[in-house]
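Feature request, filed as a ticket because there's no other form

It would be nice if the structure record came with a short human-readable summary line next to the tokens. Right now we just get the raw output. Example of a typical job, pasted below so the devs can see what we mean:
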Amino acid sequence: MTDTTQVDAQQVERLRKLASSIRRRDLQTVYGAGMGHVGGEMSATDILVTLYFAVLHIDPARPDDPNRDRFILSKGHSALALYTTLAHRGFFPVEELATFVQPLSRLNGHPDRKKVPGVETNTGPLGHGLPVAVGAALASKLQGASWRAFALTGDGELQEGSNWEAAMSAAHYKLDNLTVIVDRNRLQQGDWTEETMQLEPLADKWRAFGWSVIEVDGHDIGQLLQTFSRVPFEVDKPNCIIAHTHKGQGVSFMQDKAAWHHKVPNAEELAMALKELEEVVS
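Raw output as currently delivered:
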């Protein structure tokens, strides 16, 4: 784990409270829509908030700025967590979240780059986001540009072979401007990842493919800030951050439960969840 002594405590607290607010909004939106993927959205929220409010070089007023950093949500089924973060960052009105998956809404169940400002590429079919991020990072290198590429993958998603082809390519082209963050919540749609298809030793696998790897607590914003500040970890090596997280983070009865991959809370469950998350903010 990384040393967080150099991290601004006030910034950490601000981001922690913001992450809790975004989780609350996410849950309310899923409840209103009657669909969503709350488990994996809760596990990814701290990572998304840290990236969008402290790490990425982006401007909501200029979402197509050619010098922006590129972020790709490879686990596209967690689109609502991305939408909620983008809205709070100013890419579109927060009120629009209420239209999630409604007829004619641009906020589809999977992100669409042609409709939503701030979305870099369409994702949903797993194993596609990291290959696109590799292409983006390579494009930046070929252009002699300074912008970076980041991709957030699920851990169950790493069972897709396309990720490892992309990982091999990234090391070959020495893409130290590329960072992949693995949302290591240990659960996929129906079971634990290790029961479905064993991933461990995961860090060793990435290192064997030529990547520099750091493991962190994916819910410790101080650790996340410190780790992102060190990118690139090694010259000429792509960066892998294995973020150890919990599915359903922040809500006790959802945490580490595979059923909450895409379960929708009822009114009583929503009230209990919002109360727990409100206690984090207060």
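Something like this underneath would help us a lot:
Residues 106 and 116 are 7 Å apart (CA to CA).
The radius of gyration is 18 Å.
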